[in-house]
Amino acid sequence: MRILRVRAIARKEFIQVWRDPFSLAMAFLMPVILLIIFGYAITLDVENLSTIVYDQDRSSLSRDLISRFRESGYFSIVEAVEKPEDIDLRLDGGKARVSIWIPEDFSRKVRMGRPVQLQVIVDGSDSNTATIAQGYVAAIGERFGQSLAGDRGRVSIDARIRVWYNPELKSKNFIVPGLIAVIMAVVVALLSSLTIAREWERGTMEQLISTPVKTPELILGKLIPYFLIGLVDTAVSVAMTVWVFQVPLRGSVLLLFGLSGVFLFGGLCQGILISTIAGTQILASQMAMLSTFLPALLLSGFMFAIANMPEPLQIITYVLPARYFVSVVKGIFLKGSGLGMLTLEAVFLILFGVVLFAAANRKFKKRIP
Q1: What is the pLDDT of residue 25?
Q2: Distances in Å between the alpha carbon of 297 and those of 88, 183, 244, 306?
Q3: What order of strands is seen across the sheet that includes strand 98-102?
Q4: Which sign does the torsion angle of CA 126, 130, 132, 133 carry?
Q5: How high is the pLDDT of residue 317?
Q6: Which residues contact 79 (CB under 8 A, 6 or more apart)?
Q7: H and E: helices and strands count for the chain
Q8: What is the DSSP string of 280-329?
């Protein structure tokens, strides 16, 4: 392998990318746009749930309970209804997600120390939001009861809970780092998937075939520009994650970029292999999107726990590089994991890159079909 040949192919590809506005936009704008859209749009935090209250008791205690719901930040009291029929109307019309019905004997039972029941109706059309809202209601009700009972409300078991890695339980802290893996998987495969197909469509592949450039030199020369672009995109994504989304970066930046480089190499080789198989840019881009975006989004553990998936899907995730890179990014960002804790992920990413490079090298033939 001759370095001069690789450098010549890389220089040619750099010029081609620089003269192509579509490739430039895809390379530098697409990661930023995707990160902003997904970073702000995808959230599992539940706040300001529109809530209506039907207070039959109208006492100081009932008003105190309502204020606790309002001050929690999880519930936004939008209306105090006057009759039970209004509850159905508001929930059916989508004007409220939660309704709280305080019975007329609420304060009397509280003062007598008797059990009190509240009727809370939660809109279950969004099951995740409904489940979280139920937990908030239960917690507020329990704290309200304990504040009234004083010492008698204490229990014998005092569980002191401490959340590690994400103490504020902000969903963006684990969603946004995972987005870096998803976006990089899509961008690098999509960019490199157009390279070989573009040469065939423009009629320049015949000229490359007639040169003494060998297949590994051609593939490496085409990978280098997109590898550097991928590193720039990674740097921009990491900077946005830290400074725009305020996600803490507790681990080594060098380790993050080192393993990102390994992941980018495998993704680029995947794109080259797709480009060789597809033959046309349209088909190559479609194959790249289908083989990267959906698996990275749904099967990498980015949003959905792999342990909760059906066993056949869990088996499939073992061959997805995004699964391991998501673990790498989340581990370095949130846990401050070192290389010793990410050895398995690093080994698999290296193996994936080597296998895909060998497959692309074997599939590409320096001859006119």
Answers
A1: 84
A2: 37, 9, 22, 12
A3: 75-80, 49-55, 98-102, 119-122
A4: positive
A5: 93
A6: 52, 53, 90, 95, 96
A7: 16, 4
A8: SHHHHHHHHHHHHHHHHHHSSSSSS-GGGS-HHHHHHHTT-HHHHHHHHH
**Parallel, antiparallel, or unpaired: how do β-strands 75-80 and 49-55 relate?**
parallel
Is 231:261 a contact under the CB 8 Å cutoff? yes
| Overall residue count recorded for the chain in this entry | 369
pLDDT of residue 367: 62
d(CA 22, CA 17) in angstroms, rounded, equals: 9
Q: Look at the alpha carbons of 190, 187, 325, 353 in this order and tell me if their dihedral is positive or negative.
A: positive
Query: What are the percentages of helix, strand and coil residues in the chain, rounded to 5?
Result: 65, 5, 25
* Domains contained in the chain, CATH given: 3-42+170-363 (no CATH), 49-153 (3.40.1710.10)
Q: How many CB atoms lie within 10 A of CB 222?
A: 26
Q: pTM here?
A: 0.81
Task: Give the per-residue pLDDT at 161.
Answer: 55
- What was the pLDDT predicted at 158? 44
Q: Which two tokens stand for residue 233?
A: 């995109």
Neighbours of 305 (CB within 10 A): 7
* Listed residue (31, 11, 30, 20) closest to 235, CA to CA: 31
The C-alpha atoms of residue 79 and residue 99 are separated, in whole angstroms, by 10
Q: How is residue 119 written in tokens?
A: 């009727």
Residue 52, Ramachandran bin (φ over 0: left; ψ between -120 and 50: alpha; else beta): beta
CA 103 vs CA 30, 84, 91, 116, 119: distances in Å? 54, 11, 19, 9, 8
Residues 297, 299, 305: CA angle, nearest 5 degrees: 105
Low-confidence residues in the chain, pLDDT < 50 = 151-159
Concatenating the DSSP letter of every residue in 43-65 gives ------EEEEEEESS-SHHHHHH
CB 288 within 8 A of CB 277: no
Please give the pLDDT value at position 368: 60
Q: Is the dihedral of CA 131, 132, 137, 140 positive or negative?
A: positive
Instruction: Provide the pLDDT for residue 162.
Output: 63
